[in-house]
Design a protein that fits this description.
Layout (H helix, E strand, L loop, with lengths): L1 E2 L6 E2 L4 H9 L2 H4 L5 H11 L4 E2 L1 H9 L6 H16 L4 E6 L2 E6 L4 E7 L12 E4 L1
Parallel strand pairs: 3-6, 4-7
Antiparallel strand pairs: 1-2, 4-5, 5-6
Length: about 130
């Protein structure tokens, strides 16, 4: 804020009209379809660890598939990207491991290695290669 000497005029650097315009044009405000609950749910989900369903755990054990900490971090990064693109159920490919994952709940539904004969993936709406 500046006060000009010899006058009662004040020059404020805050422009309420411009500030209101900026608030209205933030990404959240410009997309009326995104609710506070959706934004909060996404933030909470980002901080949740990956969950392995009973089926996925059985597949990992029976197929002798072991994910390293680095691979799990890459899967989490891929899920973040999938969420940003609006994917619900994704095939996530990390090295030679294929995971079908529910993106919202971060739950691995099934797992397989690329050496298996079955290379058909159903019930997915996107794929992420990390």
């Amino acid at each position: 804020m500046q006060i000009f000497p010899g006058t009662n005029k004040v020059n404020s650097s805050i422009n309420p009209v411009a500030d209101e315009h900026q608030l209205r044009n933030t990404p959240q405000a410009s997309n009326p379809g995104v609710s506070f609950g959706d934004v909060l749910g996404n933030k909470i989900a980002e901080n949740q660890p990956i969950i392995f369903s009973k089926h996925a755990s059985l597949r990992l054990n029976s197929r002798n598939i072991n994910l390293s900490g680095e691979q799990i971090a890459r899967v989490e990064n891929g899920l973040t990207q999938a969420r940003q693109k609006g994917i619900n159920d994704s095939l996530v490919v990390v090295d030679d491991i294929r995971l079908v994952v529910n993106v919202k709940s971060k739950t691995v539904i099934t797992a397989m290695q690329s050496v298996t004969d079955n290379n058909i993936f159903t019930n997915i709406d996107g794929a992420v290669i990390v």
